[in-house]
Amino acid sequence: MLTTLELRWFNHGKLPLEVDSWFTADCPGKLLGAPAERPEDREDWYLYVPSCEYLNVKLRHGNLEIKWRKTQLGVWRFDNGWQGKVEQWLKWTGEDLEQQSFIPVDTADKKPWVGVRKIRKQRQHQGISCEITQLSISQDTWWTFAFEMPCDQANSINSFNDVLSQISQTYQGPELSVENSCAYPGWLSLLT
């Protein structure tokens, strides 16, 4: 079981060019994957549980991932105007060692399972993963910007805050507000 600190925003529409350019060229940290490589392109399946923003169940690369929100750490504000909800999550991954699907194929396209196509770029900076992802769901387009850090040290919260403050000072793009800040279960509840 892994404990993480997370902050995420969702925005409707296509990923703005200035955000993509900033993330690729100017965002602090190491860009994961060679620059010539294409971003990761995959489809994840989420179990939609109405009115339940503290539980995230998804199928990813044939594995079952379950995340449980342990704590809401409130709204954090950064110097450049970023505002978002920081949360602590517990994450468990069940590997499909027999290479069989965790859900039957004939139920994959039916509610309550929701398919989300993702085109994702990632960076790593001082132990924190940073990602921008273009999302497609039910012929609708969104993009998300997120940070995640394993929370296994006494000073994890301070480290998370410090690194996000550094990154926020370089950000070039539209406002990231608390109204758009939530985890995947909260975002899915907006769409259904």
Description:
The chain has 192 residues and is of the alpha+beta class. It contains three helices and nine strands, in the order E-H-E-E-E-E-E-E-E-E-H-H. The protein has helices at 17-25, 156-168, 184-191, and strands at residues 2-12, 30-31, 40-47, 55-60, 63-77, 83-94, 113-125, 128-137, 140-150. The chain has an eight-stranded antiparallel barrel with strand order 1-6-5-4-3-7-8-9. The longest helix has 13 residues, at 156-168. The protein starts with a strand and ends with a helix. The model has no long low-confidence stretch (mean pLDDT 89).
Keyword list:
192 residues; eight-stranded antiparallel beta barrel; 3 helices; 46% strand; globular
User: How confident is the prediction overall: mean pLDDT?
Assistant: 89
Strand order across the biggest sheet?
1-6-5-4-3-7-8-9
Q: What is the alpha-carbon Rg in Å?
A: 16 Å
Q: Please summarize the sheet with the most strands.
A: 8 strands, antiparallel, barrel
Provide the low-confidence segments as ranges: none
Report the total helices.
3
Distance between the termini: 30 Å
Query: What is the share of helical residues?
Result: 10-25%
> What is the strand tally?
9
